[in-house]
Queue: 2 jobs
Job 1
Amino acid sequence: MGIETVSLNRVMKRFGAIIALRNVTATFRAGEIALVVGANGSGKSTLLGILGTTLQPTSGEVEYGRPGRDIAEVRMEIGWVSHDTLAYGDLSGRQNIEIAAEVHGLDPKAAVRRAEERFELGAFASRPVRTNSRGQRQRIALARALVHEPSVVLLDEPTTGLDASGVRRLVEVVRECRDAGAVVVIIAHDPGTFDELGPVRYAMDRGQLSAAKA
């Protein structure tokens, strides 16, 4: 069963003497898009790392729908695009998508066909990812992260490198994720890109998260 809420209760994260998150309390809900904005170094990517389970809070709690949910189960429900595409550079884009599909028990060939249509992948998807442009790598990263229709979608600057067509396609895919009932959290320096989707806006400032002013 998918995850319908992700809740943080007084979450703090320290890196040595540096406090990256300060008592963050928030609930992200299914069928909503949460848009987090803030300056570089404000804690946005750390927040996504906590939500994505790759970072553990120094203190506080994170719950995924129900208390005590198994971390392996949670990770199978997450689709995450970070600053790094996390793709295997010597493999083609299609091979990267096939691997992700197999991990989630999907038909890899059908998954690639779906991804090619969904993200308008061209001939570049047959080449080693390391030979692709930044925008092409971003399309592959998005296709791979969302191949299993995750119920938690985490996107860190997802428009990076995308041309106008790629951005329009991304917005439509985010709309599809929201309408399918996913929890969607986006970090963006260009928040206006997603205005038409009616996001819930948050501001991150020196590790503190708050509702953004209208």
Job 2
Amino acid sequence: MDRMPDTHRVKVWDLPTRLFHWLLVGLVAALCLSGLTGRQGLHLLLGPMVLSLLLFRLAWGIVGSRTSRFSDFVKGPRAALAYLAAARHGAVRSIGHNPLGAYSVLALLGLLLAQSATGLFASDDIFSQGPLAHLVSSGTVTTLSKLHRLGFRLLLAFVGLHLAAVAFYRFVKHDDLIGAMITGRKSVPAGIDGIRFRNPLLALAVLAACTALVWGTLAAVPPPAAF
């Protein structure tokens, strides 16, 4: 059996990234429940909040701390295959997202962005519709509503796969991803130091700008024409 390498705990995730993660978990759960229980008023309020968070994460993936930047963990297919090959021979620990996990991050962000975008134009065909639905044709609303419902089913399946992967890493690879996202610290091979984080005030400014962009745009949209 291969000997497990010596490890120590270092700073891996900054506070803005961790807060984003858990806020997103809570908001997505609330969106799913409100959609399933017909609480459309709450659903329509939470949607733009999720969109603001997603835009923040995209921006933080460019200007944020090292492990939060897409350039740090998004690699090509060759890197993902090399990671899989190395993982067969023992535990492989990366300081942030591993090359394979990067694809999961991108898929989740893309799926949630698609859900947020289609939700702006979707309708339940009874009492409520997205804040931008009146700007497009009824046929477009119907199509985007179907895509929104399909996206919901895909999201549930993806969340299930994500939880299964987290459990696999925790109990098989002995890599506690949840604990790291709570404390910000992770066990990595000895000799690897923690990283320096960006100022949290920068993250707050980025979040404020993204929130203002989303809600300001929605506020500027002309209301539906009265009949």
